[in-house]
Design a protein that fits this description.
- It is built from no helices and 11 strands.
- A hairpin with a 4-residue loop joins β7 and β8.
- The strands form 2 sheets. Strands 2, 4, 5, 6, 9, 10 and 11 form a 7-stranded mixed β-sheet that branches. The protein has a 4-stranded antiparallel β-sheet with strand order 1-3-8-7, with no helix packed on it.
- The model has no long low-confidence stretch (mean pLDDT 93).
- By secondary structure, the chain is an all-beta fold.
- The protein is globular and about 40 Å long.
């Protein structure tokens, strides 16, 4: 599985941005997650989604502002960022977790994810 993110850029607080993650070698049953890492901070989970995993799951700081979705036909996962704040500035990474194919629950722990993209920078001012 290879993951390629796009859609990052600079924006003002209160705007909106949509990140995309295209997967090759993708199976719809993988769990797709978005993570971020700000300078000097550890990488943290933002949101995750998968077809058999019930409702999408978000970290508290983005609930009500970010929306994760996926288009299985296009092998693409999205992260819609609405009302962003300067604290959302980070490199955003897409990741895929194989364990979802085994029917196991997947959260936002980095160790649960097997495949990672190169990241796309988001800067909010």
């Amino acid at each position: 599985v290879q993951l390629v993110e796009s859609g990052g850029g600079s924006m003002q607080a209160g705007g909106s941005l949509r990140l995309s993650c295209v997967a090759s070698g993708y199976t719809y049953s993988y769990c797709m997650g978005w993570f971020r890492q700000a300078p000097g901070k550890e990488r943290e989970g933002v949101a995750r989604i998968w077809s058999s995993g019930g409702s999408p799951y978000y970290t508290d700081s983005v609930k009500g502002r970010f929306t994760i979705s996926q288009d299985n036909a296009r092998h693409t996962a999205y992260l819609q960022m609405d009302s962003p704040k300067p604290d959302d500035t980070a490199m955003y990474y897409c990741a895929a977790a194989h364990k979802a194919t085994l029917g196991l629950w997947v959260g936002l722990n980095l160790n649960e994810y097997n495949y990672w993209g190169q990241g796309t920078q988001v800067t909010v001012s």
